[in-house]
Amino acid sequence: MAITKDMSIGEVVQKNPETIAVFRNYGMGCCGCSAARFENIEQGAAAHGIDLAALIAALNEVVG
User: Fold this and answer.
1) What's the CA gap between 62 and 58, in Å, rounded?
2) Can you give the residue range of the structural domain that contains 42?
């Protein structure tokens, strides 16, 4: 299943722990943060000023 911008950060990390490194590499150390439970990837990227398309591509690359 492909990772999309609408998925919650917590959901992605729970199902694919290997994505934690990607989030951290993009400056999103929020994987354990309470916001990760309800914030989707698009919202998290916007809050951190991260290129959403690049982040999604990197996440999907790491999960294969």
Assistant:
1) 6
2) 9-63
Rounded to the nearest angstrom, the gap between the alpha carbon of residue 8 and the centroid of all alpha carbons in its chain is 8
Q: State pLDDT tens for residues 17-48.
A: 999 999 999 988 766 666 667 789 999 999 88
Separation of alpha carbons 14 and 48, rounded Å:
21
**16 in a structural domain:** yes
The reply to whether 1 falls in a domain is no
Which residue reads 């722990």 in tokens?
17
Distance CA 14, CA 31 (A): 9
Beta bridge partners of 29: none
Indicate the number of domains in the chain: 1
